[in-house]
Automatic annotation (TrEMBL):
Keyword tags: Coiled coil
Recombinase domain location: 200-335
Protein name stated in the entry: Recombinase family protein
Entry superkingdom: Bacteria
InterPro entries listed in its UniProt record: DNA_bind_recomb_sf, DNA_bind_recombinase_dom, Resolv_N, Resolvase-like_N_sf, SSR_resolvase, Zn_ribbon_recom_dom
Keyword Coiled coil attributed: yes
Organism from which the protein derives: Leucobacter albus
Length: 547
C-alpha cells in the first residue's frame, strides 16, 4: 500500500498552542514516609492565567511554601497537586489537581494541605467556606503562606467571619474583572472587532482602526489564499463533492494542510463552512458544546444596538447560497441512508417513482442460486403499501437496481452533449433568484420539521388502531412535499463548477462521488417512472427529460 507523505504545505494551518509546562494532577515528591518527628503534608499549587499570573507562578508558590514549612520544622512535604488552568470559577472541569486532592482528602490519604493563599483553592465564597468546613470535619490541617492558620483551622465564629469575608472579596474581585472584560468584548463585538483567540480560517487580522464612536480595534480581512479556498469549497459542496474531496483539493491547489502536513480534517472543513462567518457575521458567546444538544449558530452572532447583525468581515458568499450549503452538509451528516449497508450507491434515489406516485427506495435481498451459492440482489421498490397501508399501490413496483441504473446511465450518456449542458446552465442562471431560494428553503425546513414531529408521535396514545394509518398518511404527505420542494431547490442551485463539458463528464464519471453523479442526472432528468411486472427493463422505465 502506498504511504502518503505528510509534508506541510506552504499554507499549513498552525497547530494549537499548548502549555509550556504540562503538570500531572499529582506528583509524589517526598520520601516514602515522613521524617521522624514530623507530619506529612501535601502542597496545592495553582496558576491562574485568567488573572495574568506569570508562567513561573507555580514554582514561586512551591518555593515560598517549602521555605515556610521547613522553618516550622514539623512537616515533611510528601507530594503536590497542581493545576495550570484559568480562573477557578470557570475552570472546574479542567482542575484535575483540585479534583484529585479532594478525592484523597475524602479517602483519608491527605491529612494536611498547604497552599499559597486561600483564593488559590476557590474564588467562589460559598464553595470556599464549604470546603474549609469539610476539611475541619475531617480533621485536615490547612496551612497558607498568606493566611493565618487560626482563621483556617478554628471553628469559632470570628474565624468563620474573617474567612468568609476574604472568600467573598476574592469572588467580588473575579466578578468585577469578569464584568469589565465582558463589557469590553461586547463593545468589540458590536464594532465588529476581533478580540483575539485562534484566527478563523479564511481571514487574518487587518490594521488597527477606529470606528465612528471612537472605539479602536482590529477587524478581520480576507486571507489571500484561504478566503479563495472557502469560495471554491462552496462551489464544490453545491456540485456534490464530499468534505474529504475538498480537503484533498485544498492541499493540491492551495497548499492548505494541517500543521503535520495531512489533509485538512473533514470536521474542520465542516465547521468552517457552516459558520455564520461565511456571510460576514461575527460569532458571539457561543455556548460550550454538549453531546446531543444541537444549536443554531445564527442565534449566537454579534448584533448592534438596534439588534441588527454586525457584518465584521468580507463574506465568502451570500446568505441564500450559504443556507443551501449548510443544509446540504447537514443532510449528508445526518442521513442514515446515504449508502445503506455500505454496499451500493443507489444512484437513482430521489428521482425514480412508482406509477402510484410514491418513491422507490433502495433495498437489498439475500438470494440463493441453484448451486447453493448465496448472493445479494439490489433492487428499488415502492414502499407505499408499507407506509400508507395495503391497497394504496396496486402494482407494488420492484426493479433491479443494477439494470435500472445501467439503462438510465446509457440514456444519460447518449444525451449529455455540450449543447445540452449549456442549456441546463442557462436555465439555472435565468431561473435562479436569491429571494426565491430563501423562500423555498423556509418551506422545506417547515415541511421537514412537520415530518419529524409526526414521526415522533408513532407509538404514542394519540395514534392507536385505525389512527396509525392516518398518521402514516400524514407522514407520506409531508415526505411528498419535501420531495417536491427539494427538486425545486435543486433546479435553482448554482453549480457552474460542475458543468464543464460533455467529454469531461464521460471521462471522469467513475471518479465522481455519488452526490455529484445524482446532481448530474437531475440536470437532464425531471423524473423516472417505473412500472411493475417482469418485462424487459427498457419497457418498464420511462425517463422524463427536462425540456
Amino acid at each position: 500500500m502506498e504511504t502518503l507523505k505528510r509534508t506541510p504545505g506552504p499554507n499549513a494551518r498552525p497547530g494549537r498552542t499548548g502549555r509550556v509546562v504540562v503538570y500531572q494532577a499529582f506528583a509524589h515528591t517526598g520520601p516514602e514516609s515522613p521524617v521522624e518527628g514530623t507530619k506529612p503534608i501535601y502542597l496545592y499549587l495553582r496558576l491562574s492565567k485568567y488573572h495574568k499570573d506569570k508562567a513561573d507562578a507555580i514554582e514561586r508558590q512551591r518555593i515560598d511554601l517549602v521555605r515556610m514549612l521547613t522553618a516550622e520544622g514539623s512537616w515533611t512535604v510528601m507530594g503536590e497537586y497542581i493545576d495550570n488552568d484559568s480562573a477557578s470559577s470557570s475552570a472546574i472541569k479542567t482542575r484535575k489537581g483540585w479534583r484529585q486532592l479532594n478525592a484523597d482528602i475524602e479517602s483519608g490519604k491527605v491529612q494536611a494541605v498547604a497552599f499559597w493563599k486561600l483564593d488559590r483553592t476557590n474564588r467562589i465564597a460559598s464553595k470556599c467556606i464549604e470546603w474549609i468546613a469539610t476539611c475541619q470535619r475531617g480533621n485536615v490541617i490547612l496551612r497558607s503562606h498568606q493566611d493565618s492558620p487560626d482563621e483556617l483551622n478554628t471553628a469559632t465564629a470570628g474565624a468563620k467571619l474573617v474567612t468568609g469575608i476574604k472568600a467573598l472579596l476574592a469572588e467580588v474581585e473575579t466578578d468585577s474583572m469578569s464584568e469589565r472584560q465582558l463589557a469590553s468584548k461586547r463593545h468589540l463585538a458590536e464594532a465588529g472587532f476581533h478580540h483575539g483567540g485562534m484566527r478563523p480560517f479564511g481571514w487574518i487580522s487587518g490594521p488597527r482602526v477606529t470606528d465612528e464612536y471612537g472605539r479602536t480595534g482590529v477587524r478581520l480581512v480576507p486571507h489571500p489564499v484561504e478566503h479563495q479556498a472557502l469560495k471554491v469549497a462552496v462551489e464544490m459542496v453545491l456540485a456534490g463533492k464530499s468534505l474529504s474531496q475538498i480537503g484533498r483539493h485544498w492541499k493540491k491547489e492551495f497548499g492548505i494542510t494541517t500543521a503535520s502536513g495531512a489533509f485538512v480534517y473533514e470536521a474542520s472543513v465542516y465547521r468552517s463552512l457552516v459558520s455564520p462567518r461565511m456571510i460576514g457575521y461575527r460569532m458571539r458567546r457561543v455556548p460550550e458544546h454538549q453531546r446531543g444538544v444541537k444549536i443554531d449558530l445564527l442565534d449566537y452572532i454579534a448584533r448592534d444596538a438596534n439588534g441588527n447583525p454586525v457584518i465584521s468581515q468580507e463574506p465568502v458568499c451570500d446568505r441564500a447560497i450559504w443556507l443551501r450549503v449548510r443544509r446540504l452538509l447537514e443532510q449528508a451528516r445526518t442521513a442514515n441512508v446515504r449508502r445503506p449497508w455500505g454496499s451500493h450507491e443507489w444512484l437513482l434515489t430521489g428521482i425514480i417513482f412508482c406509477q402510484c406516485g410514491g418513491r422507490l427506495y433502495g433495498h437489498q435481498k439475500r438470494r440463493v442460486r441453484l448451486s447453493g451459492e448465496e448472493y445479494t440482489e439490489y433492487v428499488y421498490r415502492c414502499m407505499t403499501n408499507r407506509h400508507r397501508g395495503s391497497g394504496n399501490c396496486p402494482g407494488s413496483c420492484t426493479v433491479n437496481a443494477n439494470k435500472a441504473e445501467a439503462y438510465v446511465l446509457g440514456w444519460f450518456f447518449s444525451q449529455i452533449t455540450d449543447e445540452a449542458l449549456a442549456k441546463a446552465r442557462a436555465r439555472r442562471r435565468l431561473a435562479r433568484a436569491d429571494n426565491e431560494v430563501e423562500s423555498l428553503l423556509a418551506e422545506l425546513d417547515e415541511a421537514t420539521a412537520e415530518k419529524i414531529a409526526l414521526v415522533s408521535k408513532q407509538g404514542t396514545g394519540e395514534y392507536k388502531g385505525a389512527m396509525v394509518t392516518v398518521l402514516l398518511g400524514l407522514v407520506e404527505d409531508a415526505q411528498r412535499r419535501i420531495d417536491v420542494l427539494q427538486r425545486r431547490v435543486d433546479s435553482l442551485e448554482t453549480d457552474d463548477l460542475l458543468i464543464v463539458d460533455g467529454q469531461d463528464v464521460l471521462q471522469t464519471w467513475e471518479q465522481r462521488g455519488i452526490k455529484e453523479k445524482r446532481s448530474y442526472l437531475r440536470r437532464m432528468i425531471r423524473q423516472i417512472n417505473a412500472l411493475p411486472g417482469r418485462k424487459q427493463i427498457e419497457t418498464r422505465i420511462q425517463i422524463i427529460a427536462i425540456e
